Integral membrane protein (Microtetraspora fusca), 163 residues
Amino acid sequence: MVTAADSVATPARSEAAHRTTLAGWILRAVVSAHVVAIVGQPVFAGVYLSGDYDSLGWHAAGANAVTSIGYLQVIAAIIVWIRLRQVWPFVTTLGVVAAETVQYFAGLAGALWLHIPLGVMTIVALVVQFIDVWRRPLQRRPHPSQERVPTAEQPERKEADDA
Ligand code: HEM
């Protein structure tokens, strides 16, 4: 039976369900800064390869910024994991940060056969992650003991309700 109280409570409940928490906003901010920093890297590299050798200094500074923000993102993702019980941002961040670390040393070693394709893949991965963190509501997942587990009795109860 639907009561007047139910119809008033439902919109507020669904609004709360889509509300992103502070930990979620922090992760979104760090991922956004990370994307902005990494997008500059191929630009500086391209300018350097066109003959402006000073741009390698900008690319090196960008590399330090990108990897530092990456490590901050690991911390933000751990906070999201602990506070919101959502592990996927941590797992995906770990992949991106591992790729960036390899990328950094490949750049220093001048191993362009690895550095350029890995750089492109890392940028694509980070842009996908950016879309993901902004698309999903980052809210606290209920404790496993509070999640509804379907039981064998439920279909019977529904049939009884229908009758
Ligand atoms: C598509 C993206 C990227 C391209 C096309 C690119 C390209 C390059 C090129 C052409 C060099 C010069 C290598 C040489 O002269 O031997 C270089 C160096 C370097 N890159 Fe990248 N790169 C990219 C992304 C990144 C990223 C994301 C990082 C950091 C995680 C990074 C870190 C470095 C470092 C540390 C160096 C060495 C700088 C130095 O010698 O002072 N690169 N990169």
Notes: Residues 55-84 form the longest helix (30 residues).
